[in-house]
């Protein structure tokens, strides 16, 4: 099969649960999802429906209790914790609601970090980071620290950082959730544009129907079960 015909993300029969004393609390129940390379998908669902858990499983942060997850040709079930970390560093970029920039590093240092962790030479990582900061409109702020920026600016830096190692998949967990409507719309447009330009698939958690409409496809979780479209 051609590589482009194979889904970038495939979840089959994924079940996940957390233990609460002796009780098992099911969070995801029989979830099947495929996402194509470059596809931009919004994930909607009420609080507690399992959205963040789903993102964490796809990122290999934790393994599912049952079911199979394959991302970028890597079967996550066969990987130990170290191998999952290496997988994540190569294939996945994360954008969080509260930016999660490293406060003691400059913007340039924040953005170059993922590439350096993957073994890139410092000069090359720096050049890519500078280009990315320019792309998100902050090319002249590289020596500033996160606390000197507005929330919208910090999220733009976080998008640059998420793209620095050229991941095949961007996972965004309520990326506009802590921003005002106008700033959120700008950040969303930048995120979509960045994903489109780089051919990066995007799976974005949101509570907002309006935000979800910007994606190519919307999937919905209800109590850990995927609703049929
Ligand atoms: N590490 C954990 N240990 C125990 N329970 C957990 C853990 N992580 C999540 N849960 C529970 O799993 C359920 C789903 O949580 P999750 O964060 O995936 O939902 P969500 O849809 O992302 O919610 P929100 O929109 O509020 O962020 C919740 O009931 C939550 O309390």
UniProtKB/TrEMBL annotation:
Gene Ontology terms, cellular component aspect? plasma membrane; transmembrane transporter complex
Cited SMART domains: AAA
Please give the start and end residues of each transmembrane region. Answer: none
GO MF term list: ATP binding; ATP hydrolysis activity; transmembrane transporter activity
Q: What are the alphabetically sorted keywords of the record? A: ATP-binding, Nucleotide-binding, Transport
Q: Which InterPro entries does its entry note?
A: AAA+_ATPase, ABC_transporter-like_ATP-bd, ABC_transporter-like_CS, ABC_transpr_LolD-like, MacB-like_ATP-bd, P-loop_NTPase
Q: Where is the ABC transporter domain?
A: 9-229
Q: Name one Pfam family in it.
A: ABC_tran
UniProt-listed PANTHER family: ABC TRANSPORTER RELATED (PTHR24220:SF685), IMPORT ATP-BINDING PROTEIN (PTHR24220)
Q: Which family does it belong to?
A: Belongs to the ABC transporter superfamily. Macrolide exporter (TC 3.A.1.122) family.
Listed name of the protein: ABC transporter ATP-binding protein
Species assigned in the record: Acidihalobacter ferrooxydans
């Amino acid at each position: 099969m051609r590589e482009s015909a194979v889904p970038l993300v495939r979840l089959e029969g994924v079940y996940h649960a957390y233990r609460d004393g002796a009780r098992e609390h099911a969070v995801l129940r029989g979830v099947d999802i495929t996402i194509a390379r470059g596809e931009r998908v919004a994930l909607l669902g009420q609080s507690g429906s399992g959205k963040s858990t789903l993102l964490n499983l796809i990122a290999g942060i934790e393994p599912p209790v049952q079911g199979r997850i394959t991302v970028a040709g890597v079967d996550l079930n066969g990987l130990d914790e170290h191998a999952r970390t290496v997988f994540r560093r190569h294939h996945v970029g994360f954008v969080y609601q509260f930016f999660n920039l490293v406060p003691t590093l400059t913007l340039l240092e924040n953005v170059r970090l993922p590439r350096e962790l993957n073994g890139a030479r410092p000069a090359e990582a720096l050049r890519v980071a500078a280009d990315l900061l320019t792309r998100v409109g902050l090319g002249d702020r590289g020596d500033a620290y996160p606390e000197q920026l507005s929330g919208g600016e910090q999220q733009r830096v976080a998008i640059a950082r998420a793209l620095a190692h050229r991941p095949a998949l961007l996972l965004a967990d309520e990326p506009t959730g802590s921003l005002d409507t106008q700033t959120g719309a700008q950040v969303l447009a930048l995120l979509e544009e960045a994903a489109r330009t780089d051919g990066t698939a995007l799976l974005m958690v949101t509570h907002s129907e309006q935000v979800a409409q910007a994606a190519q496809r919307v999937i919905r979780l209800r109590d850990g079960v995927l609703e049929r479209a």
